[in-house]
Amino acid sequence: MTRPPSTRILLADDHALVRRGVRLILDSEPDLTVVAEAGDGAEALALARVHAIDLAVLDVAMPRLTGLQAARELSRRSPATRILLLSMYDNDQYFFEALRAGASGYVLKSVADRDLVEACRAVMREEPFIYPEALTALMREYLQRVARGERLPGSILSAREEEVVKLIAEGRSSQEIADLLVISVKTVERHRANILAKLEMRDRTQLTRYAIRAGLIEP
Amino acid sequence: MTRPPSTRILLADDHALVRRGVRLILDSEPDLTVVAEAGDGAEALALARVHAIDLAVLDVAMPRLTGLQAARELSRRSPATRILLLSMYDNDQYFFEALRAGASGYVLKSVADRDLVEACRAVMREEPFIYPEALTALMREYLQRVARGERLPGSILSAREEEVVKLIAEGRSSQEIADLLVISVKTVERHRANILAKLEMRDRTQLTRYAIRAGLIEP
DNA sequence: GGCGGAATCCGTGGCAGCACCCATCCCGGA
DNA sequence: TCCGGGATGGGTGCTGCCACGGATTCCGCC
Taking every annotated instance into account, which residue ranges of this chain make up the domain Response regulatory (chains A, B) (predicted)? Predict the structure, then answer.
């Protein structure tokens, strides 16, 4: 009998060493084949244009275009392509954002290699994959929020707010940001206040860590 | 003729997926064998105690004990063991700190898999390994500093200062830090000022990014 | 056509971050 | 022995962060 064709995978991560390792893991499975590698989100989109891709495995934090941004664009341009996001961080905020960005799965880099392979297969079977660690963490978080009567998924930042977060996390002052964006200092402060409220944070250091987790800037 | 025995490697990285990939890369070389894996610096030290290790490949940023801290301890306890530090970041500051911590090599995760293998071999031959990207960057930096008549290697933080950096980067206020360390707020501010001067930085957001790069905290 | 949300701007005010000056104590190395 | 550096504490003052109130415009959606 004929076996089903191997899943054609696009792999994107900004670290060549990690890319190579993950590729070895995936290629050792007969039903998974990495057909293209990208070092950032923009390159991933370009490669997705010229290659026939079944599945894109994208690191969340990449220069130029983050994995989340690339996922949004990719799912818009070719909805048939499945997307799996790789993340360093176990954070429900990003998990929900990943789903919103069109990803079918979200896998932590801290998990074992078997889980990644299983996630690829689950996503190709059109089953959403949730890694077990996230499942418990998400359920705990969900139950806590429901118990406190909060609306659950939490807030996402607008494009403008994301822009401001990026600049704040780069260490720019409000005045500098105002000059760069050609808006008033007060508006920058208003944005910052809204962002801090949305993310339930207190100051710029926490925003900096958020921006790094989200892949908006590099440490 | 008998071939030389394979190098016994301890591999430490907090991401199981990365660990697995790097292990595949190393194990595919006949002269390199990963005999133990650790998920953080403390576990790495414990494993180095019970295994016969020729070479430790340590990620710089790990929870509990960072790769730099583990390297310091490991080179003190068993100077014969070679140490190779893996880093996400191309930063001369960390490069020098790595050497000071007793490492024989410093490899970026952005480099190709061949370079890691070559670095392992070079280190085992007692040749210090410097990846080409760093070489040019370090030389450029070096020449700039010499041209400006500065003392070159730059400053390293004291243990106390490192402690303060960690708390600042976690988003604590000066008052909170003072309470935690049972010192005056003024002393915290004095430490912060010294740290900012040493690292040639401006504010807490940059310190936050520094702490993440150094593996003192997780994003 | 109203309604909500995003983006823009303004004022007031407190407190913290940060700069620059100062001092003391202790310890280890020249 | 003295010197230097680290850790500690203090004073003064400016600037910027951040909270709190308000406002307008525009746009898309029901």
Answer: 8-124
How confident is chain B (219 residues) per 10-residue block, as mean pLDDT? 79 93 94 95 93 94 84 87 87 71 84 86 81 59 50 66 92 93 93 91 92 84
- Give the Å distances, CA to CA, from A19 to A26, A95, A201, A216, B109: 10, 22, 33, 20, 9
Protein contacts of strand C with Cβ less than 7 Å away: A 158-161, 181, 183-184, 186-187, 189-191; B 168, 173-175, 189-190, 192-193, 196-197, 202-204
Task: Name the 3-class secondary structure at A202.
Answer: coil
Residues in chain B: 219
- Domains present along chain B, CATH in parentheses: 7-129 (3.40.50.2300), 159-214 (1.10.10.10)
DSSP letter string, B84-140: EEEES---HHHHHHHHHTT-SEEEETTS-HHHHHHHHHHHHTT--EE-HHHHHHHHH
CB A6 within 8 A of CB A30: yes
A100 falls in which pLDDT band (50, 70, 90)? confident
Which pLDDT band, with edges at 50, 70 and 90, does A110 fall under? confident
Q: Which residue has the higher pLDDT, A58 or A65?
A: A58
Centre a 10 Å sphere on the Cβ of residue A194 and count the other Cβ atoms it contains.
16
User: Which nucleotide lies closest to B160 by the C1' atom and the CA atom?
Assistant: D7
